[in-house]
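Let us practice reading a record.
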Amino acid sequence: MSDSETIRIYDEKAGDYAARFASSSPSGSLQAFMALLPVRARVLDWGCGPATASAHMQDAGFDPDPVDASPEMVALARTQFGLNARCATFSDPLPSAHYDGAWVNFSLLHASRAALPGHLRQLHEALLPGAILHLGMKRGSGEQRDRFGRFYVFYQTSELTKHLEAAGFQVTHTHEGEEAGLAGTIDPFVLLLSKKA
């Protein structure tokens, strides 16, 4: 089930979030992801926020499908970038065997720990054979709310690797680092690239 307080906060701070993560060019991790996609790939941007990544993917000739649970984030994606973003939660169904890739960047960390395996299986079913999944999560243990009240679940890299493998993915690359988010704290993160086996 989606965390209604987290969605409310993203609605309230959509403009601040968009300004904090605005970029005129794709990040290194997005470039690495796009380099693995076929021409005109159809890509799920699951938990897209203001959909900056989708805008970069569209500019690169791909066909992004930006989805977010926050109506205000979806409105920003539509007005700022002219994207056909849509409002849905992780619990809403995805089309089967539809996408060449999925960009899931620091969004599934808001789902409950118990729900993560099911969401990864859902992604696996939505992807075509050989499709690429980018997953960005925060590293650590347990769960907590940040100073705004957003709900987070933290994972170790090895734990996420096991979850991905159990869902039918082959992890091909991991990158760990630290970054300051909207709340101002510097948090450890991990980016995982995997392929639908």
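A brief commentary: The helical segments are 4-12, 14-20, 28-34, 52-59, 71-81, 116-126, 157-166.
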